Amino acid sequence: MTELEVCGLSKHFGATQALADVSLSVRGGQVLALIGENGAGKSTLIKVLSGIHRPDRGEVRLNGQPLRLHSPAEGMAAGIVLVPQDLHVVPGLSVAENILLGHLPTRRVAGVLPSIDRKAMRAMAQSVLQDIGVALHPDTPAGELSFAERQLVVIARALGREARVLILDEPTASLERREVERLFDVVRRLRAQSVAVIYISHRLEEVEGLADRCVVLRDGRVVAHMEAPPFPIGQLVEAMTGRVLADPGASPRESGQIPAGAPRLRVALEGGTFECRSGEIAGIGGLLGSGAKALLRRLFGASDAGGASPHGSIRHAIAAGVGLVPGERAHSLVMSMSVRDNIVLAHLDAYAHAFARHEGRIDEAVARLMELLDIRPRSPHLPVAHLSGGNQQKVAFAKWLVARREVLLLDEPTNGIDIAAKALIHERIIAFAAEGGSVVLSSSDLPELLALSDTISVLRQGRLAGRMEPGASFGEARLRDLLESSA
Ligand SMILES: Nc1ncnc2c1ncn2[C@@H]1O[C@H](COP(=O)(O)OP(=O)(O)OP(=O)(O)O)[C@@H](O)[C@H]1O
Fold first, then answer.
1. What's the complex ipTM?
2. Which ligand 1 atom minimizes the distance to the CA of 390?
3. Atom of ligand 1 at shortest range from CA of 19
4. CB-based burial of residue 112 (10 Å sphere; 0-12 exposed, 13-18 middle, 19+ buried)?
5. What are the pLDDT digits (tens) for 361-404?
6. DSSP state, 142?
């Protein structure tokens, strides 16, 4: 039976103690949830476990044997597989080729160079897919798969290599309910096949539904070991943050009617139009591939997003007071640049002279935003690459709060954000609208979408497929109906 033990692991980056004397264990047939605030050390820990980082002190043991990994390839060879958030799937190759990448079966015919044995490859891929209960065709090009399906391909690839420990890093961050359920089914099957699973998530309700045990990290230390369910959300949050949050997860917006402000954006789509007024948060719902991402990019003036953009170019959109927080944070951040420079980057054009004269004020504004959004560590000159994923996401949001904006386009704005910081971001979005700003918000987190939005437009393949306006039926049941009937 597989047993992975982490004994007294420490790791620092410069002045940051990312892990301090961390000990935990997980056995085959168990799902261990690993939770903690943004910057708590979760990614650092799994990077050590999978051979990406080397620890300063401490040891990892697999079945009692010390494991000294020098690369992810060595981790894989030992049966430890990480499914990261940025999936590595080759779009031009088929599902089967991706699953067997690096281990493709070959056929030898005398006098000719060995070639790929396509029949064997398909059969092998099919068998792995069957083991995890996934009905994907082995010949489908990976480029045609949804994010959720690509994730399953990466998991299938791991299993093809006989994974003993599978580490899933926030796997449900951009999945909708049915895809989450499919993923959970796969994880449960793996558990039944004696794989040890480490599961990282900020969606605390998932911990309850899936995990057998739970470890909570705070500031690089283990602050709670919970050995059996239930894992009440209040207790998890208290362990994560060290304080009691009044009502974690709730967002304080009471809408009831469309704000009376002047229309600021008119969005024409196939199937209809919708408006976003001053003071309004216009929600967009849709399953993956709904076209919401492209719509927000189009409203931001991106030339490759299809359809006419109201501003012609990104530069013009920014000058007109529009800001976009894209779903992939890497698209809006320059990783090698500091937190401060990323925050002011979008405004350099308009404010170059003022900025040169008011360096001190900019520093103050950046410090205020870092405090407001709890960006950790509070080091404005640290390169963004050195921040945890959730803290990078906060920077992607902060850059549109430093100067006056008229319109914020938000695509999954709280992706990867912990529950306490999520409430801070919600407060900012609400305050922005209350001051007369217009927000177009796309989110696969339905409670978030419902709590913040005044109206919700449901998209399907770029078409307007449904609409919810304030009234008695504005709620989760109706939204699910609209989403699922438009699927
Ligand atoms: N390459 C790096 N260089 C410098 N500091 C780093 C580096 N990677 C992580 N850190 C720091 O280590 C600490 C732990 O970060 P880590 O990414 O492990 O957190 P996390 O729990 O995964 O957070 P999140 O939920 O936001 O993904 C943070 O303070 C972070 O800024």
1. 0.99
2. 26
3. 14
4. exposed
5. 888 999 999 999 999 999 999 999 999 999 999 999 999 998 88
6. G
